[in-house]
Amino acid sequence: MEMLIDFPGGAKVDAHFGPYTVKTDQPPMGGGEGSAPTPFALFLASLGTCAGIYVLGFCRQRGLPTDGIRIIQRMHNDPGTGLIGKVEMEIQVPPSFPEKYLPSLVRSAELCAVKKHFENPPEFDIFTRAVEGVA
Q: Which of 3.40.718.10, 3.40.50.740, 3.80.10.10, 3.30.300.20 is the CATH number of 39-119?
């Protein structure tokens, strides 16, 4: 997979891949317009939405309704590093949701591919190259 990252102006940075463009911006206090989520907010949202797609798939496979199901994701900072030290996901279900499926619902969310990449991070190779014809 390849993504093209460009800079459309101001503090905006966009990612283009396939038919999609993901737009990011910084808040006004960070020099941006606040017109889109920050890259870090999108990163965090990818955790919750990834878990969500596994929860959705679990329910669909069993014919369980997803009305009223939601995930509340909370980030807890590590005061020593200033980084996020813990991510908590609370899967809220309506009272009518079958209790026997609750542990399996948690296990399905834990299968999230984004979470797995956290647990086994990729190697990064960042470099520069001058390219003719790039304006």
A: 3.30.300.20
